[in-house]
Amino acid sequence: MRSASQARERVFLVGLDYRSRMRVGEGGNPERLPSAARQSRDAAIRASSGIQRATTPQFTPEESLAELRELAASAGAEVAGEFLQQRDKPDPATLIGRGKLQEIAGAAASAGAGLVVFDHELSPSQLRNIEDLVPARVLDRTQLILDIFARHARTREGQLQVELAQLEYLMPRLAGRGKQMSQLGGGIGTRGPGETQLETDRRNIYRRIRHIRSQLEEVRRIRGQQRQRRESVPVATVALVGYTNAGKSTLFNALTNAAVLESAKMFATLDPTIRAVALPSKRKVLLSDTVGFIRNLPHTLVSAFRATLEEVQRAALLLHVSDASSALAQEQDGQVEAVLRELEAHQRPRVHVWSKIDLLPPERREALRDEAGIVHVSAAKGIGLTALLEAIDAAVAEDPLRRVRLRVPQAEGKVLSQVQARARIFASTYRDGVVELEAQAPESLLRKIRQFLVE
To answer: Which of 15, 215, 327, 440 would suit a FRET pair with 167, their CA atoms being 20 to 30 Å apart?
Structure first.
């Protein structure tokens, strides 16, 4: 019986550095701002309605290759070697040039790698040309992400969304792929959400795509009906958004006492989960955990997950979760902004949540200060959660709160119970069989008990 490490597929990673592209700092290395300066710039970015693509911080080639390493690990692979190629511009036929491809083919064979993954999306012709020169299987970054999604999809809806994205990616790449695409096997990049045989005939694939789209439209219709029922009552939806592995699911569990999978692997959460959360004002909101974003998120995935991502588009408030312990937090935030723009959700009200502060050095952690719309938390340690709930309470506009005085006869037990359950009571006095209350209550409650309001 093979051990877990033996069963893992060995991959060789290929990164690219185009020397002609814009650099942030001198000498080809991006400048790293000091912590205080970075936080100041982050605050300026957050104060704007969104980050323009032209000013979005960029990953360095080394950082991008490191992220590809994490993606490979999330796909269950063992990295056997890697190569970072520098060029002035991509080669239109093979991306990195035939000579370098032959060098990579030899290095991959020496390392015992049966799979080569490029940190770049390959065109159909580039993929075919590379496969002619490299004896190992070849994937690009998009295929690797699609494979991880297929690995983590649990619900039927999630599986359909992943399969649709896979088929739409496959369509222009059918010609010349041969046996590799004739069926879904057990290796990375060939994993499917449930199909055992993938027909390469275009008509069959078109038919399957139409069928999946019709099923997803039905899912979208049902989601719309559920959303309409939710919106008919004054309960706001708050959506967690952020870069993959920023700590969204851990925060979701801490706020809702749910049991959503928490994992250091990328894209551990695919299927949305919604739970009710009670705020300090005693209002309730619905908190939605969503799929993590990543740089250059494949457009086929954004399109396929439209029904799921509508929770982000329609949310009353976004909780943008960033990993405070990550050296790439600024770059990751820029990518999240880019995806939110693509979803046309970048102007939604939001609270920026800096997570994982327990991983910071003590001096940095003690220097953190919450501001309007910015909260620092550690979901794993339970730090800052009360402040976060207060910030959500202040930001949610649905069912607004009003401070009022009430005079309720003690005989009105039902009314008093409603006030106790749904209002914040600051003072109460009893006299002559009447309870006089000073409270903060939502408008939905005040409409029901308006006869007890004291002007």
So the answer is: 15
Residue 219's φ and ψ, nearest 5 degrees, are -60, -45
Q: Residue 407, Cβ neighbours under 10 Å: how many? A: 13
What would the two tokens of residue 405 be? Answer: 């005085």
**Could you report the per-residue pLDDT of 372-392, keeping only the tens digit for each?**
899 999 999 999 999 999 999
State the span(s) of the chain assigned CATH 3.40.50.11060: 1-22+58-231
Domain spanning 233-395: which CATH class is it, in words?
Answer: alpha beta
Phi and psi at residue 106, to the nearest 5°: -65, -40
Q: What is the pLDDT of residue 405?
A: 94
Q: Which of 364, 406, 358, 363 is nearest to 383 (CA)?
A: 358
Indicate the fold that domain 401-454 takes in CATH: Alpha-Beta Plaits (3.30.70)
CATH 3.30.70.240 domain range(s) in the chain: 401-454
The rounded distance, in Å, linking the Cα atoms of 68 and 319 is: 26
> CA–CA separation, 338 vs 316, rounded Å?
19
pTM, rounded to two decimals: 0.74
Q: Which residues pair with residue 316 across a beta bridge?
A: none
d(CA 440, CA 405): 9
Distance CA 260, CA 263 (A): 10
CATH placement of domain 1-22+58-231: 3.40.50.11060
216: CB partners within 8 A, 6+ apart: 157, 160, 161, 164, 304, 306, 307
- Give the C-alpha distances (Å, rounded to integers) separating 216 from 155, 194, 408: 13, 16, 51
Question: Residues 6 or more apart from 193 whose CB is under 8 A from it?
Answer: 150, 153, 158, 159, 160, 162, 163, 166
Q: What is the pLDDT of residue 35?
A: 40
